[in-house]
Amino acid sequence: MEEFPSGAVPEPHDDGAPGGTPGTAEPRAAESGAAEPDGAPHDEVDRIVAAWLRVRPDLDLEPLTVFSRISRLARHLDLARRRAFARRDLEIWEFDVLSALRRAGEPYRLSPGALVQQTLVTSGTMTNRIDRLADRGFVERHRSPDDRRGVQVELTTAGLKQVDAAMADLLAVEADVLSALDKDDRPGLAALLRTLATQFEE
């Protein structure tokens, strides 16, 4: 599970289009997602793109039609995930660490270095996070059986129950978001997003 940046999340109407938020000053013909006179569904991005076309018809705005929607969806998902984890009294970073341990399988144990690699934070940040999770009774430190100087971090029974419950809540939230798409369309969307993401992972 990827970690989301901490702090306030921008409201979904703050679009990352070039030049700020040119579309927000435009009068809205209908609410986001409502049908326009031609019968096709339109959203705020369509209105932003239309505004740019009026002032810069020389630009190819196709990237904006894709990435502005991805950006806006990411903000909505971040807020939804925070609400889902809040039901279990968890922060997103806590779920990131606990879920990495859960995915490791029994005995749900990883080195701090492995946790750093999986959650993309510094070793100092991870040390602090392990301390805080240990204080909550969700993880324990153990000596590594292969290296007496090494340490392993292990899920406790309480941590296991907490992360399993939070994962179920998260999947329910995300399934609700996906319900706007037909099931037959979802694999194709996942494949397209995988293609875009792979260029950064490589």
UniProtKB/TrEMBL annotation:
<feature type="domain" description="HTH marR-type">
    <location>
        <begin position="63"/>
        <end position="198"/>
    </location>
</feature>
<dbReference type="Pfam" id="PF12802">
    <property type="entry name" value="MarR_2"/>
</dbReference>
<dbReference type="InterPro" id="IPR000835">
    <property type="entry name" value="HTH_MarR-typ"/>
</dbReference>
<feature type="region of interest" description="Disordered">
    <location>
        <begin position="1"/>
        <end position="42"/>
    </location>
</feature>
<protein>
    <submittedName>
        <fullName>MarR family transcriptional regulator</fullName>
    </submittedName>
</protein>
<dbReference type="InterPro" id="IPR036388">
    <property type="entry name" value="WH-like_DNA-bd_sf"/>
</dbReference>
<keyword id="KW-0805">Transcription regulation</keyword>
<keyword id="KW-0238">DNA-binding</keyword>
<dbReference type="InterPro" id="IPR023187">
    <property type="entry name" value="Tscrpt_reg_MarR-type_CS"/>
</dbReference>
<keyword id="KW-0804">Transcription</keyword>
<dbReference type="InterPro" id="IPR036390">
    <property type="entry name" value="WH_DNA-bd_sf"/>
</dbReference>
